[in-house]
Design brief:
alpha+beta, 5 strands, 67% helix, 7% strand, zinc
Length: 456
Amino acid sequence: MVYTTVTRTISLFLVAAYLTVASTPSAFAQSRVTVVRDAEIEALISEYAQPILKAAGLSRSGIDIVLVNNRSFNAFVDGRRIFIHTGALTDAETPNEVIGVLAHEAGHIAGGHQERLRQQLQRAQTMAIVSALIGIGAGVAGAASDSRGLATAGMGMAAGGAEMARRSLLGYQRSEEATADRTAIDYLNRTGQSANGMLKTFERLAGGMALAGINVDPYQISHPMPRERIANLEELARKSRYFDRKDPPQLQLRHDMMRAKIAAYMEGGQAVQRLFRGNPRGIPARYGDAIATYLNGNPRTALQKVDALIAEMPRNAYLQELRGDILIKASRAEEAANAYARALSLAPGTPGLLQVGYGQALLATGKPDLVKKAASELQTGLSREPEFANGYRYLAQAYGQLGDIAAADLATAEGHFHLGRYQDAKIFATRAQKRMKRGTPGWLRAQDIIQYRKPG
């Protein structure tokens, strides 16, 4: 599991934007989020999402699912991306709960809600500005006539207009959320899946608000109240012939192994114990324990634990990946490379992230022939996962050891570029280009980085 902090433009409605005229007119915020990259989790979430995206007519729309390192239960969309918090994955007890969340977010994308939200934002902004101008005009008139009452009325007009615009926009958002809920149930029915997971999610949210003693004005929030959502959806959900359908046992096992992995990485071994206290000797609990042992710097014991799991699940690619990670930490690079090669042979498709891990292990051997192979594997893996910024560091090291300084500089430039460090990327791209023949693919890529202009 790898964490990368990046800056992304995320469609977050800023309520404060319409409280005063002096505030920003934009509804979009530059937000730094820590993205989690993990081959096992991404493969599972993709498996959850594909039937839903197909039902939504989005299977060929290039939808990406991005994992965000955040403990809260949340998901949202931006452009062609669905962002889902790791907290949502660990809190969801069944695959069906996560699938319900994905169906809801797919409903937003398929329904074009983002574009209409932008239009509503512009309308609300106009309403707020017009109200403010009217209020300012009344205030000026009051000052000129020395009428304190008229000036106060002008201030009230400005504040009232901004509040009306804000409430109008929140009402629109609640309507779109309700539409996405209904659309999600339709997608679940089309794919033969239960909507029970969605209901459980809303019940969890309602319970959380009740336990926190939160008393919310329903007109001041952008989503329907949880109890209201449950009441609206329960009848529809229970009408489905798939309502009582359970997730397949093997899928549930993979889901719990994902939860164990996230818990181990995010919160440590005690979190894994709490999560699986009902079955402490089950495979998920032992998987999380092996990861926590590895993270705590005890590779020998971690290797024993993962080998015991492999004996039970010899065709699990991601146990082999963990074995490779442990062996690298134990400075047994060639054995790690063999484990990664085994993981690649077992994983569906050819996951770029696993290929990068294989290249990293080959690089760690320090043997010239294996370093050359490492460069090839890293390059191929990154061609499949071009935004995996951390991988370019290993590629640069491989090219550096092979004496190809131009390629090493270009790889470093790529890494900076995908981390949003554009000035550093341009510096290394310029260095690389000076060593390259004009017009070659590497030279042209360096030119693209040098000439890149950040949008907005």
